[in-house]
Amino acid sequence: MNKGLIINMGNMPFNGIEKINKQSAVDLVLEQMKMLIKDETWMVGEKIPSESELAEMFDVNRLTVRMALQKLNTFGLVQTRVGEGTFITEFSFINYIKQISEFYNQDMFDNIADFREAIEIRCCALAMERSTEEELTNLENLLIRLEEIQACLDINFTQEVYLEIVDVDLKFHEYICTIAKNSLLSAAFSMSRDIIYQHLLMIVQKRIDQRKKKIDEGHVVRRNIHRDIYESIVNKDFVKCKKAYLDMLNQRVNLYEFAS
User: Fold this and answer.
1) Are 187 and 220 found together in one domain?
2) Is 14 helix (H, G, I), strand (E, B) or coil?
3) For the segment 33-61, what is each residue's pLDDT rounded down to a tens digit?
4) Is pTM beyond 0.90 here?
């Protein structure tokens, strides 16, 4: 395939599509598909190219495409109809949360919090020792972005802004594991990334509800707990960092709220 050509499948332009490196191909294909949905290149109700067409477009095998489509289906972004193909669907955050909550019980939810406590707090301690100034600046940039999105959400709650908060939140914690410079701890987080994302979907929702209630009642809302984590890493204050992390992870979520 000529990489200089603009790919056109079914009269749908795909300007700027990059060939995918085989390493982590599923996630990279998934991200590009999500971008095509987000920027409405693929519209709701529209049939997308076949698996073989997508495999050619991204220069990957069909199994990689199939796995990426399965993830999109899990997110509620596409629907595959037997004999017809795959279509873009209207995303419903509430329905997605309900589907997730069906696979959770409180013990599982608490186990995820325990896992994150063991992995991420240790990564914070290592980040205090091993991170560079440039890496701390990168972490601060993620924090600033998170605070900017939070400010938007306080003004106008939308699914898109909410999901962006969860996405940046995940990247913030993942980057702490990266700058800890321990390949095994980082790998443990990466292997659990999907389930941590689902965990964040629920605890962030709880955090937003509590914040909104305080604002409605006229209370002063405390600053972002992520800033406490960032500043404690910068200042090498492990006690403060651990307390902030435990405050964040110990937020109880009533799973029945999402299933009702």
Assistant:
1) yes
2) strand
3) 988 988 889 998 999 999 999 999 999 99
4) no
